[in-house]
């Protein structure tokens, strides 16, 4: 291992430096963050200079591998920091994190714009030895050259400077977008002291709200804008006026309207992000940012994506229209409501679902206690891929609720490990996600296995009862576990294309959405479900109802997803700063063409649409539906051969999960399925094939 060349020697007591093994979460404090990053960046810069000075002619061994190692060192240092920032947010950590972001961007931009580094990779690609490199190594070189070009490596003088400034500003803006949203989400809550106002709400939601109030030292119940609290309130609270208040606060987060109007307004940030991304694309010769974004994706171009989305819109629209009419009729018949509002949709939909199928998500909780679900999920992958998963005690994590597991395959080889952080709590970002703690790597100097973070926001165990999940939450867990398996079961030894690394955005949801299918199989539910008191398995009759209900409002749900995806594509291909269409107008136009429900004029959904402004989904939200075509079609193979067919399981493991980003997604898919994907399975699964 290289010695660190630095003016200030590394501080051995800094747990973010000289890492080996798992991150020492308990020892990491905000004051460690910036010095560790400074130290590592300085050392990486010095290493890079030495590589460039000594290593001609450049080869994989003397250059590309060393670059991978440096990137990886940086990831290993930064990954626990960014993870802690998401799951244990504090003002000091957030400050440290924010001070580091521009430094990281600077460093990344500096390398991505260094003509010497670009030339070194070019030289490797053009050398005679290139052809004897492994597929993974070649793909890393190809991807790197592509990304160099997309980062402006071929630009000269002023254009290069402008490009760099844009990237830096974007990094700050996108992070501010996210923080505004987080602050706005946490600032508002609904406190109620009279129980009769909360009629309709299920026990779980009431208990959670009572606990939230208790934590604040007040009487009554507190409902927040975090997903579990908000969605339960909107689906069950009988009081329409309170639902309206919750809805307004939620859809106006980080905007010019609502209870915290203009306090964390993202509107200006949105305009500027769009402007900068557009400029960035044009500097590189693209027509707009959408074209730029698609270069590294599976979809060929903007046209192909638009056609795909509009085709789905055409197919689902008649069904969505029928469904909204049924909902309106139901609201009229049951409550005499003639003018159904946005804050009534979830409420009447839940009532209609119950009247039609005679069950609700809340009724299902008793059958899905967390311990049973976790064991059952592990049993699924034991049957599919021969994996065994065991818990490791005594591993240092960031919260007492966090658990740690190890995956061993059928050949008794350890394949990976993961942290599981299931419950919602203060200072933890909402939603569910998988993130990388460490990637698989095998080289002369080092061998390491992949480690993942799986994070959810379920209701924590209460009053001695285990945490009880809805079926939707079980699906969420399977989804993230699917991402985790993609990361952990990889057999690729080079970080750049191991696991989910280097996989096109629009194909990356394949393994996750694929896993969701097992939550619906009778064979699975025999061991995945079990009443938390009696152990009784989910009754077959109830499962049948759930399956019939699965496509309840499938047309409306599809229309909603298409609205988001089309808005994203139109925004990144049409919006012009000071042009004749505002963001709101583009959204309104999309809604006019695909939505069957028009939200009220005060709805500022876009101000909280972090996927496309601060996440990685800019001109890429369509990826969810795109990947669903792949996942539905892949699962159809199991429907044909048996859902626990080990041969099919192994084929999926070998052709998809183990391959990471070494090949184009379409090649991997064809290797597994024996043909290109078709949309049929998706339409059939969503009940849309009739039209
Ligand atoms: Zn996902």
Quickly list its features.
691 residues; alpha+beta; Glutathione S-transferase Yfyf (Class Pi), Chain A, domain 2; Neurolysin, domain 3; 4 domains; five-stranded mixed β-sheet; two-stranded antiparallel ribbon; 26 helices; 56% helix; globular; binds zinc ion
The rounded Rg comes to 25 Å
List the ions, cofactors and other small molecules found in this model: zinc ion
Percent helix? 55-70%
Q: How widely separated are the two ends? A: 62 Å
CATH fold name of the largest domain, please?
Neurolysin, domain 3
Please identify the structural class as seen in this structure: alpha+beta
Shape: globular
Number of helices: 26
Strand order of the largest sheet: 3-4-5-9-6
Question: On the 0-100 scale, what is the average pLDDT?
Answer: 94
| Biggest sheet architecture | 5 strands, mixed
For the record, the count of structural domains works out to 4
CATH class of the largest domain: Mainly Alpha
Number of strands: 9
Question: Which SSEs are present, and which pair or pack?
Answer:
Blueprint: H1 30-54, H2 60-87, H3 91-112, H4 115-126, H5 135-150, H6 157-187, E1 189-192, H7 203-215, E2 221-224, H8 227-236, H9 240-251, H10 267-283, H11 289-294, H12 302-335, H13 342-357, H14 361-364, H15 370-385, E3 388-391, E4 403-408, E5 414-423, E6 433-438, E7 441-442, E8 447-448, E9 451-458, H16 471-488, H17 510-516, H18 522-528, H19 540-550, H20 554-574, H21 583-594, H22 610-613, H23 623-641, H24 646-657, H25 665-673, H26 680-685
Parallel strand pairs: 5-9
Antiparallel strand pairs: 1-2, 3-4, 4-5, 6-9, 7-8
Helix pairs in contact: 1-2, 1-3, 3-6, 4-5, 6-10, 8-13, 12-20, 15-18, 16-17, 17-23, 20-21, 24-25
């Amino acid at each position: 291992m290289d010695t660190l060349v630095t003016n200030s020697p590394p501080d051995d007591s800094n747990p973010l430096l000289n890492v080996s093994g798992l991150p020492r979460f308990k020892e990491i404090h905000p004051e460690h963050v910036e010095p560790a990053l400074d130290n590592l960046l300085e050392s990486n810069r010095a290493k890079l200079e030495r590589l460039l000075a000594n290593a001609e002619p450049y080869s994989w061994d003397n250059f590309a591998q060393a670059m991978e190692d440096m990137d990886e060192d940086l990831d290993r240092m930064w990954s626990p920091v960014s993870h802690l920032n998401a799951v244990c947010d504090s003002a000091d950590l957030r400050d440290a994190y924010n001070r580091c972001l521009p430094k990281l961007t600077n460093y990344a931009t500096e390398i991505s714009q260094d003509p010497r580094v670009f030339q070194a990779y070019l030289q490797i690609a053009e050398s005679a030895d290139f052809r004897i490199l492994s597929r993974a190594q070649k793909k890393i070189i190809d991807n790197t050259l592509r990304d160099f070009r997309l980062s402006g490596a071929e630009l000269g003088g002023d254009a290069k400077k402008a490009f760099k400034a844009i990237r830096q500003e974007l990094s700050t803006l996108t992070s501010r977008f996210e923080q505004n949203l987080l602050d706005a989400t946490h600032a508002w809550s609904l406190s109620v002291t009279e129980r009769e106002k909360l009629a309709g709400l299920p026990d779980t939601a009431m208990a959670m709200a009572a606990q939230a109030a208790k934590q604040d030292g007040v009487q009554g119940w507190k409902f927040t804008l975090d997903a579990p609290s908000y969605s339960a309130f909107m689906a069950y609270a009988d009081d329409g006026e309170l639902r309206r208040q919750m809805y307004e606060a939620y859809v106006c987060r980080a905007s010019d309207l609502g209870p915290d109007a203009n306090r964390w307004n993202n509107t200006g940030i949105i305009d500027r992000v769009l402007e900068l991304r557009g400029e960035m694309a044009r500097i590189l010769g693209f027509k707009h940012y959408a074209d730029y974004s698609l270069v590294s994706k599976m979809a060929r171009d903007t046209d192909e994506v638009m056609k795909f989305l509009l085709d789905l819109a055409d197919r689902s629209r008649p069904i969505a229209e029928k469904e909204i009419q049924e909902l309106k009729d139901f609201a009229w018949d049951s409550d005499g409501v003639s003018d159904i509002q946005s804050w009534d949709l979830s409420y009447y939909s839940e009532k209609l679902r119950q009247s039609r199928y005679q069950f609700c998500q809340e009724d299902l909780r008793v059958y899905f206690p967390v311990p049973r679900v976790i064991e059952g999920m592990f049993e699924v992958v034991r049957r599919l891929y021969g994996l065994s998963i065991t818990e490791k005690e005594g591993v240092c994590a960031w919260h007492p609720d966090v658990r740690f597991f190890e995956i061993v395959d059928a050949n008794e080889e350890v394949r990976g490990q993961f942290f599981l952080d299931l419950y919602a709590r203060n200072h933890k970002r909402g939603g569910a996600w998988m993130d990388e703690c460490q990637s698989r790597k095998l080289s002369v100097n080092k061998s390491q296995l992949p480690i993942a973070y799986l994070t959810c926001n379920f209701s924590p165990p209460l009053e001695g009862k285990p945490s009880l999940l809805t079926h939707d939450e079980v699906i969420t867990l399977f989804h993230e576990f699917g991402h985790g398996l993609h990361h952990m079961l990889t057999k690729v030894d080079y970080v750049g294309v191991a696991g989910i690394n280097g996989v096109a955005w629009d194909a990356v949801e394949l393994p996750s959405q694929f896993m969701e299918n097992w939550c619906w199989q009778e064979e699975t539910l025999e061991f995945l479900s079990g009443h938390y008191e009696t152990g009784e398995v989910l009754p077959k009759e109830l499962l049948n109802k759930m399956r019939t209900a699965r496509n309840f409002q499938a047309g409306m749900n599809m229309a909603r997803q298409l609205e988001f995806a089309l808005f994203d594509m139109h925004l990144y291909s049409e919006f012009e700063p000071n042009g004749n269409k505002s963001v709101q107008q583009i959204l309104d136009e999309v809604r006019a063409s695909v939505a069957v429900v028009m939200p009220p004029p005060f709805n500022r959904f876009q101000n909280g649409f972090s996927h496309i402004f601060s996440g990685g989904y800019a001109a890429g939200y369509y990826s969810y539906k795109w990947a669903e075509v792949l996942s539905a079609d892949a699962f159809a193979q199991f429907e044909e051969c048996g859902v626990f067919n080990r041969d099919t399981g192994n084929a999926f493991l070998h052709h998809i999960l183990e391959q990471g980003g070494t090949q184009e997604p379409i090649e991997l898919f064809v290797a597994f399925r024996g043909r290109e994907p078709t949309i049929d399975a998706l339409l059939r699964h969503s009940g849309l094939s009739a039209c």
